Amino acid sequence: MVFILQPLFWLLKTLLIGLVRFYQVAISPLKPPSCRYTPTCSNYSLDALRKHGPIKGTYLSVKRILSCNPWGGHGYDPVP
Predict the structure, then answer these.
(1) Which structural domain, as residue segments, surrounds residue 28?
(2) What is the pLDDT of residues 11-63, one digit of tens each?
(3) How many structural domains are present in the chain?
(4) Among 9, 19, 10, which Cα is nearest to 45's?
(5) Distances from the Cα of 36 to the Cαs of 28, 61, 66, 68, in angstroms?
(6) By C-alpha distance, which of 44, 32, 54, 53 is closest to 77?
């Protein structure tokens, strides 16, 4: 079972990292800087996906993006 899931997780992680990189290269330069955190939300997402894999990495990324608002936090917030 592990032999089947491991390549699927690798593929999912690679696709998600590709989507974030596409955002960084194609969409982010068109918008003014607005992230309240260091590292930026997209860099945080890349770090989370690389460190924790596609499931927990996506969870941490979504949690971070949802907290990036005027009532959320700010400052240095590394991937746990």
Answers:
(1) 2-76
(2) 999 999 999 999 999 999 999 888 889 999 999 999 999 999 999 999 999 99
(3) 1
(4) 19
(5) 15, 14, 12, 6
(6) 44
Query: What tokens appear for 73 in the block?
Result: 């936090």
C-alpha span between 72 and 63 (Å, rounded): 11
**Spatial distance between the Cα atoms of 57 and 50, rounded to a whole number of angstroms:** 8
> 46: closest CA among 1, 80, 10, 79?
79
For 46, 50, 75, the CA distances from 55, given in Å and listed in that order, are 13, 11, 25
pLDDT band at 71 (very low <50, low <70, confident <90, very high): confident
Write the single-letter amino acid at 2. Answer: V
